[in-house]
Amino acid sequence: MERPHLDFLLLLLIVAITMPVAASQPRGNITLNSSITAGENLSYWLSPSGDFAFGFVPLPNNSSLFLLAIYYANLPNSSTIIWIPNRNQTLSLNSSVVLTTDGQLSLRDQAGAEVWNPSVQNAAYAAMLDSGNFVLASSSGSYLWESFSSPIDTILPTQSLGPNSELIAKLADDDFNNGRFKIKMQDNGDLVFYFIAVPTGFQYSQYWDTNTNISNSNLFFNSSGRVDLVSPTGQLIDTVTSVKTNSTADFYQRGTIDPDGVFRHYVHPKSSTDGAAAEWTPMDSKPRDICSALTTTSGSGVCGFNSYCGYDHSGMVACQCPEGYSWVNPKRTYKGCKPDFAIPKCIDGFQSVGFKMVTVNNLDFPFGEYEQFYPMNADDCKQLCLDDCFCAASISDGVGDCWKMRFPMSNGEKGSNVQRIAFLKVGNNDTLPSLPLEKKKSWTLPASLGLGGSVLLNLTFLSATLIALGVRRKKQRQRLKGFKLGPNLKSFTYSELEEATKGFGEEVGKGACGTVYKGYLCSEQNGNPDVAVKKLRDFEMEMEKEFSNEVKIIGQTHHKNLVRLLGYCNRGVERLLVYEYMCNGSLASYLFGSVRPPWKQRVEIVLGIAKGLRYLHEECSTPIIHCDIKPQNVLLDGNFIAKIADFGLSKLLGTDQTRTITGMRGTKGYVAPEWFKKLGITAKVDVYSFGVMLLEIVCCRRYVEKELTEEETVLCFWASDCYKAGKIDLLLKGDEEAMKDMGRVARFLTVALRCLREEPSSRPTMGQVLQLLEGTVAIPLLGMPDWFHNNVN
After folding, report:
1. Lower CB density within 10 Å: C or N end of the chain?
2. Catalytic residue among 190, 628, 686, 735
3. Residue 344 is part of which domain span?
4. Which tens digits make up the pLDDT trace of 206-224?
5. Domain check: are 229 and 130 in the same one?
6. How many domains does the chain have?
7. CA-CA distance, 689 to 687, in Å (whole number)?
């Protein structure tokens, strides 16, 4: 009989307990004259679902200091902050936020002084929305101000980043000050990632961009789980990151520019009852390889000075100190590493005592060199640094190049893709020899004169010896056979090549650079005794140094899609280059012959050329701009694998820029507009030429064919017209194989037209071109019928 009364009393007790809690967590509109206070029960305002909170968060490393922030209410505060009004402003206990009676939102410190106000008056109410957006609204419900309009380092689903808006990374996971990286949505429509200086924000360089240039575009976080670039008309331009399997209904999602410079698309289960791990998981990111993407002549690079960039087992960036170094601040790795030994001092008698060299494979510190040597083997490269008091490390590429590095070292990168060997100078706990200063002071004049006379005699003898050795070495060089300008190149005599080509009797090609002859070397060890010997014309002795440097660079290139340089000859004013022989001739003769090449073979040729150019531009230790990409300079081996020829030669043949420009005008149709505008020449001139050639390969016709109708004469104009009209089948007359692969055809044409943009910065890089061609990156097809889009990716 007593049980109902007990139940009623228990219910009253529960209501009494829960009422204050509910009152401290309002979930509806926030009315005027409402406030929250740091450190008190009423310290935040919740969204209706309870997912997001606007309020005070204690700092991870100091619970007596607070930030006003928007954060995920159901997750640990310190790791889920998504917005701060003033990230450099920390607040003490009893700081408060007030929505005043006249409709202003005011942040006040513990003394009551205002420290932030979004400058909005007459707001009717405020609200923390379930989207993560905190708003001040009028009585009609329109937003007078919203946190989404001033993001910090994170964007959320339904949020957009408009023209000239930016995200700036925090300095460290527990330091919310402005960091070293930012993303900017530029008003020209390009999304650009910048490496910036702390604390001024000076932009050192950009390290990734979308290369999309449609003015007034927006970066939009689609509610379906994609971060897209969207045109002013709402059309999809490109997808930056995407999550295909995690819905926003079951998972929180955010896009954040992290302290290491990577923009990551994270997901987190809203509930772990299904067994999912309760943690943030990166599902997509840009750039994919920040260690390689960011190298800059200013600043430290991804990691701090004297440290190097790599990845941990989960694929996240891991900065490390080399042996002999330790962190300046282990919790602030961006500050870099300090040597755990005294930096060498240049004092009399210093050689290598007190120091040793530590060898680290696959490690490089680019851009910090102060001297370069060639040719030099790895052991000599190491010893050279040990004996130099200015040297912090030396880098060897293993094939003849050696660089001395200065303190502090920057842009460190370690990984299997880094084909370098680093020799680091560290202390070995030996004592450096001290200067015998007292002895020097006690020298007498006779002793000094005696030493001076001895030195004079020694110098005279040494000079005579060096002169004799110089004469002898000059004679030896004249007789030397097989001397190598590069580690993999053979020096031929003129008579050897004259004999190999039967007196230069079989001509197989001719161009602006010279004439090519077929030759035969019975001693050739590459399995193919046939060679192509190119006899350069108009060589001048003043170009000797440039010729040597270029041949050395070209001789170090090794790629499946580049014609291999085997050797050279430099006799007097005669300069000859020896290449592997390509039995199927040039792409021009194959492509424009009487029989149309198979579509699948043309696709492989396109991809091969793109890979070769990407290697020249982005993967060589010294980037090479070809300057004359055209079908005549692409050769085909016995398996019809495309190989680029003559890379670098057009550049080394020009004695000045004017002559190079004039030469390029001779190849009609392939020359980028900047050659004629006397602008600085970059690798984008090759991208333009590749775009022309890509159209020719797809359509199996030359760039200009005067026998066709007026509208079809110039291929790029005709292809552009057909593309915009969605009638690209008109470009493929009689090509049934290509017609069956219209999705790929449409993609190739889209890439070609992007390569042909007049502004060099609007063209993609060859790395981006290859991604687009292979379909690893989505590409919007403008003006195409719906059935095209369904067959592209």
Report:
1. N
2. 628
3. 308-427
4. 899 998 888 999 999 998 8
5. no
6. 5
7. 5
